[in-house]
Amino acid sequence: MNWQKQLSDLGFRVSAPRKRVMAVLESAQQPLTPLELHQTLLRDHKAIGLASVYRTLGLLSALGIVEVVYRSKGEMGYMAAAQGHHHHILCQECQRAVEFSGLEDLSELIDHVENQTHYQVRDHLLQLYGLCPECQSKHADEKE
Fold this sequence. Notes:
By secondary structure, this protein is of the alpha+beta class. The chain folds into 2 domains: about 1-80, Arc Repressor Mutant, subunit A; about 85-144, Dna Ligase, domain 1 (2-Layer Sandwich). It has 6 helices and 5 strands; from the N terminus they run H-H-H-H-E-E-E-E-H-E-H. The chain has helices at about 5-10, 15-25, 35-45, 50-60, 105-115, 135-144, and strands at about 65-70, 75-80, 85-90, 95-100, 125-130. The strands form 2 sheets. Strands 4-3-5 form a 3-stranded mixed β-sheet, with no helix packed on it. Helix 2 (about 15-25) crosses helix 3 (about 35-45) and helix 3 (about 35-45) packs across helix 4. The longest helix has 13 residues, at about 50-60. The chain starts with a helix and ends with a helix.
């Protein structure tokens, strides 16, 4: 579902600041902190206050339109959410994030955790870290 339709269907306006924030996030290849997002908007001559960026991210995150991705040093970044259940793998060097699908592959682990802890698992966050192919190539070139 298109994020603008989702926002409208939930009774929220598709305001100019929300459009600007989503335009940047939809084109970003790495998770952006609120400050980085704000700086990008200012560089693109899109007037928006930092408080508006935080409010917009809070709302869009609560609605599942954007999602938090933890960067390699633990900073929270934001990316536009994709359809369906997925996770992210983040390059520890260039910070590029890529989505990969997965829920069924965790069912065995979730069953094990529930049996061991007697908790009922309702949700989870799985994020992997590594080196993307481009950064792997750079490291290989440096070794030669």
